[in-house]
Design brief:
Strands 1, 2, 3, 4, 7 and 13 form a 6-stranded mixed β-sheet that branches. A 5-stranded mixed β-sheet has the order 10-9-11-8-12. By secondary structure, it is an alpha/beta fold. It is globular and about 65 Å long. Helix 14 runs antiparallel to helix 15. It has 2 domains: 213 residues, Periplasmic binding protein-like II (D-Maltodextrin-Binding Protein, domain 2, 3-Layer(aba) Sandwich), CATH 3.40.190; 175 residues, Periplasmic binding protein-like II (D-Maltodextrin-Binding Protein, domain 2). The longest helix is centred in the last third of the chain and has 17 residues. It starts with a helix and ends in a 6-residue tail after the last helix. It is built from 15 helices and 13 strands.
C-alpha cells in the first residue's frame, strides 16, 4: 500500500468519524514524527474542544515525547471563563502555555503575561498575521495560531442568491412562502453569549457598510452611520424575518430543524446531516485560537518545542481533518486534504478577506458596550443608537491605550 493511498484513506476516516489515533502520522511528511530528548512537562491551559483536534495533536506529541507529555488543564464555561482561568493560573505560576481566544492576545501581551515567540518563516493570511505578530517587520509573535476561524454563511438553497453581492442582506428576508429562513447568534442570554452576538452584529454592519470597521481596528464614531449599517438587520428582527439563537450550537440545531441559511463557523460544517453549501462572506469576522508562552513559564524550552510542533503545517492538517480552519496558507495546498474536504477552498477564500476585530487590550469592554447598546436597538421599535454608544466604544478603544 503506497503512502498517498494510506493518507487518503486515513483522511477519509477522520472526516467521517472524527477519530484520530497513532495513525495520524500519515498526515505528517514521510509518515513519521521525530523525537528528541526534552525535559519537563508543558502545562497547557485551554478551553474545551468539541472537535477532537487538540486531543489528536497532543496525542501525537505525547507519543513522540514520552518524557515530556503535556499536562492539560481544560476549562469549561466558554470564552470569558477560559480567559479568567488563564489569568489566575499565570498569576499563580501554574501554567506554561495558554490557548488564547484571538480577542485576548492584545490584553495578555500588554499586561505582561506573555513571552514573545520567534518562528521560522511561515505564511499566514494577512488578517491572521496582523493580529499575532509583535511588529509588522518582526519575526516574533505574541501567540502562534493553532487554528483560525472566520464567519461564513451555510446555505441549503443557493438558487436566487447573487453570490457577488453581500449575502447577509439577501437571506434575512422571508422566503416566497412568508417563512423565516435565516438563523444567527442574535439573542445573547449570558455573558458567554456576548462574543457570538458581537461578531454577528459586526458582520451584518460590514455587509452594508464596509467602512464601519477598518482593517486596523478603527470603528466609526458616527451613530447615524451605525444605524444605517444595521438597518436591514433591525428591520428583519422587528418583523420576525430571522430566527435568533443564543450561540453557535443552538444556531446549528435550529438550522438542522429545517431552516435554509445560517451564520456560523466552519467547524460546524462537519457532521451536518444534509447537503450544505459553505459560502464566504465578503467580510467575515476573523476568529481562532492561539498558543502562547507565558512570561513566567517554568518549562520554556519544552513548551516552545510543543508550540512549534502543534502549530506546524503538519499539525494543521490534523486540525483541518477535524473541521478547524488552518491559519497557514500552505495547508490549503494539500491535494489530499482538499479532495477529502472540498469546502476548504471556500474557507480559504473567506480567510483571505476576513476582517479582524479591534486588536485592543480592552476589546472585551468594547464587546460589552456593543451588546448593551445594540441589543435593545435591534429589538425595540423606538430603539436608537446615540452618541452615547459611539462615545463609549471609541473611548474604550482609545489608541493611546492600545
Amino acid at each position: 500500500m503506497t503512502t498517498p493511498y494510506s493518507r487518503r484513506s486515513f483522511l477519509t476516516g477522520v472526516v467521517a468519524t472524527g477519530l484520530v489515533s497513532a495513525g495520524a502520522t500519515f498526515l505528517l511528511p514521510g509518515g513519521r514524527t521525530r523525537s528528541k530528548s526534552l525535559d519537563g512537562r508543558p502545562r497547557l491551559c485551554t478551553g474545551t474542544d468539541l472537535t477532537g483536534a487538540r486531543a489528536a495533536v497532543i496525542g501525537m506529541w505525547n507519543e513522540a515525547h514520552p518524557d515530556a507529555t503535556v499536562d492539560l488543564h481544560e476549562v469549561p464555561g466558554g470564552s470569558r471563563a477560559e480567559r479568567d482561568a488563564m489569568v489566575e493560573r499565570i498569576r499563580n505560576g501554574a501554567v506554561d502555555i495558554v490557548n488564547l481566544d484571538i480577542v485576548d492576545i492584545r490584553e495578555f501581551a500588554k499586561e505582561g503575561y506573555l513571552q514573545q515567540v520567534r518562528l521560522p518563516t511561515r505564511t499566514y493570511f494577512p488578517a491572521v498575521e496582523q493580529v499575532h505578530r509583535v511588529a509588522p517587520d518582526a519575526e516574533r509573535y505574541w501567540a502562534v495560531p493553532f487554528n483560525s476561524d472566520v464567519g461564513m454563511l451555510f446555505s441549503r438553497v443557493t438558487a436566487g442568491l447573487e453570490l457577488r453581492r453581500p449575502l447577509l442582506p439577501q437571506v434575512i428576508r422571508r422566503d416566497a412562502r412568508g417563512v423565516a429562513r435565516f438563523v444567527g447568534q442574535l439573542l445573547p442570554d449570558t455573558e458567554n453569549d456576548t462574543e457570538a452576538f458581537v461578531v454577528n452584529v459586526l458582520e451584518h454592519a460590514l455587509s452594508t457598510d464596509a467602512g464601519i470597521l477598518a482593517a486596523d481596528g478603527t470603528v466609526s464614531d458616527d451613530p447615524g452611520r451605525w444605524q444605517d449599517a444595521l438597518a436591514p438587520l433591525r428591520n428583519a428582527v422587528l418583523h420576525n424575518d430571522v430566527v435568533r439563537a443564543r450561540n453557535e450550537e443552538d444556531t446549528r440545531n435550529l438550522f438542522e430543524a429545517g431552516l435554509t441559511h445560517m451564520r456560523n463557523w466552519p467547524a460546524r460544517y462537519r457532521g451536518l446531516r444534509h447537503q450544505v453549501d459553505l459560502l464566504p462572506l465578503p467580510a467575515g469576522i476573523l476568529g481562532g485560537q492561539s498558543l502562547a508562552l507565558v512570561a513566567n513559564a517554568a518549562n520554556v524550552e519544552t513548551s516552545l518545542e510543543f508550540i512549534r510542533f502543534a502549530t506546524s503545517e503538519a499539525a494543521q492538517r490534523v486540525t483541518a481533518a477535524h473541521g478547524l480552519a488552518p491559519a497557514l496558507t500552505h495547508a490549503y495546498d494539500d491535494p489530499l486534504l482538499l479532495q477529502a474536504m472540498p469546502h476548504l477552498g471556500r474557507v480559504q477564500r473567506a480567510l483571505e478577506q476576513a476582517v479582524p476585530r479591534p486588536t485592543h487590550r480592552r476589546y472585551r469592554a468594547f464587546a460589552g458596550a456593543v451588546r448593551r447598546h445594540v441589543l435593545p436597538f435591534l429589538g425595540q421599535p423606538d430603539g436608537r443608537l446615540t452618541g452615547a454608544f459611539t462615545d463609549e466604544i471609541t473611548n474604550t478603544l482609545d489608541p493611546g491605550r492600545r
